[in-house]
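Q: Hi! First time doing this. I have a protein sequence and I read that you can turn it into a structure. Is that right? Here it is:
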Amino acid sequence: MKASAFVYPWDVNGDPAAGEFIAGLGVRQATLASAYHSTRALTPRHPRHRIVTAEHAAVLYPPDEARWSGRRLRPYPAGEWAPGDAYAEAAETLAAAGLEVHTWVVLAHNSRLGAEFPDTSVVNAYGDRYAWAPCVAQPETRQYLLDLAVEAAVRPGARGTELESLGWYGLPHLHAHDKTGGVALGDAGQYLMSLCFCGTCREGYGAQGLDADELAAAVRDALEPVWRGAPDDGGWPAVEKLLGEGRAAGTRAWRDEIARTLQEAAVTAVRTAAPEGFQVLLHADPVTHHVGANAGVDPAHILSVADGVVVPCAGGPGLLTPFAEQGREGAVLAANFPVVSGMGGSPGTLGADAARAAELGATELRLYHAGLASDGDLVAVREGLSGLE
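A: Yes, that's right. Below is the predicted 3D structure, encoded as structure tokens:
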């Protein structure tokens, strides 16, 4: 089973041993970040540093001035954490070690964009803006995301891409010193707190026969029991119960259409710009109303659009099933397992986890994350992969 490890350019650049070390894990591919959000990352083996702080969302290569000149929304170049064409330097090293290199592109997740241009952000029913979450319904934002997808995905030498957060982002967000866990929102509460009420979305709800002011008030009313600690029944039925079936259906119709058409347009744009045989995968969740890095999708639709999906399997491989049930021949179903034990991963059970994922239809593996893991974790990864066909 083909396996790929996620990697940042700063894991590789400046470390002469990095390429051969990653290839020695038994992976055939490196999924290398070319556009990424802000982060603070450990680099436990690097000879020059141990902590890298990416201060804001950035592209890890020089953006094309001809593409972006004069535009209000444009990608930010990285600072000292990824100078120059950091992506290309790392890609060359990984390819020289015999690895197939694919780009890893984070799209609708950008706190700096929201801070500098607040009007681009998701606005919840209380009027709070989510700076990290660009509203993917806004025409200007959509065009920015499409052009970023093309530029960041189709880098020289890349054989494919994995597009992350290509859909709605909302309340869920690993934020610095995060203190939002005091109330267990559950699936329904997360959805209600992620509904956007920017001008574009208010018009969109109107097209679904919903009055945006009445809808926002209904969302606030629906959340009152949640704030008081009422249990969340879970899933879409809980949303319908809290908000009412008609209102819930109207919000989902608007949001599903926005996400679906953005995903179609992005995949088409990337394929148009890419060489023949370029693979396009989406990080995806098989429930359309879910938000976050793994965009909610309709499995049948997305497998008719993209070459496949990367599916989160931190809680087990069960999310693979809705995609496998589509029976699309040749589709890539990549099971994404965290292998950093300090971040909740289980590298020691990788072999068994991969076998179970294969039983449920997985065709490939993704390992998060070669640069962050300890030597002990990666020894377990190497052993786990050695037992796979």
